[in-house]
Amino acid sequence: MFPTMIGTVVIAGIVGYASEKTGWTHNGYLQSIIICIGGAFLAYFLRLMFGFGFGSPGLNAIASSVGALIIVPFHWRR
């Protein structure tokens, strides 16, 4: 359980960094990484408590990180 959580954080950090590096988002490196880690933690705990998610924890981390990057900045933008 603990290695899965650490792997989720690492994958989410990589997705956040890569999204900024490629120019897909313009939030800033730290902000994108924090958004991705928050989304990945949410998906990790939903899978742990309720069993929702895809087959592998890595795919859950990638999908939830990208989803958080799409939802969070657009929610606060006017």
What does this structure look like?
- The protein has 78 residues and is an all-alpha fold.
- It has helices spanning 2-22, 29-50, 57-76.
- Helix 1 packs antiparallel against helix 2 (29-50).
- The N and C termini lie far apart (39 Å).
Question: Quick summary of this structure?
Answer:
This protein is mainly alpha-helical and 78 residues long.
Secondary-structure map:
Elements: H1 2-22, H2 29-50, H3 57-76
Helix pairs in contact: 1-2, 1-3, 2-3
- Report the radius of gyration as a whole number of Å: 12 Å
Oligomer: single chain
What fraction of residues sit in β-strands? Answer: under 5%
- Which structural class do the helices and strands define? mainly alpha
List keywords for this structure.
single chain; 78 residues; mainly alpha; 81% helix; 0% strand
